[in-house]
Amino acid sequence: MAKRRFKESFQDAGSGIRYCIFTQRNMKIHLTAAFLVLIVSWLCGLDRLELALIAFAITLVLVAEMFNTAVEKTVDLYINTYHPGARLAKHIAAGAVLVAAINAVFIGVLVFLPYLRKLL
User: Fold this and answer.
1) For residue 108, what are the CA distances in angstroms to 52, 55, 116?
2) Nearest CA-CA partner of 39 in 60, 58, 17, 16
3) Span 104-109, mean pLDDT?
4) What span, in angstroms and rounded, lies between the C-alpha atoms of 101 and 16?
5) Is residue 89 predicted with pLDDT exceeding 90?
6) Annotation says 65 is catalytic
7) What's the angle, vertex CA 69, arms to CA 29 and CA 101, rounded to 5?
8) Which residues, 6+ apart, have CB-to-CB distance to 70 below 8 Å?
9) Exactly one of 8, 50, 65, 72 is catalytic; which is it?
């Protein structure tokens, strides 16, 4: 196998990101939510640490969604009929996305609650 160039690795990674964005409904939902949260973050004037927590939570959800997509595509590639192990692998990957999303909500509440209290 020939050595791959550094640039090719980035191009392949970009292709994977684009695939997820343009073909996965849940990725579009997560990105829309992330965009809205970042706008609210800017409007609230979050400090660097708060913004870092929000960015980390957003990134974790997006990465989990991408791993979920990779698991689903890999299982679909090798399993043509129903198999309980394949079903379980998909459920576990989806569960990882759910855990990341719950974490993001928890961080969002911790960060934004003081700002919401000021408004009320």
Assistant:
1) 12, 10, 11
2) 58
3) 98
4) 21
5) yes
6) yes
7) 45
8) none
9) 65
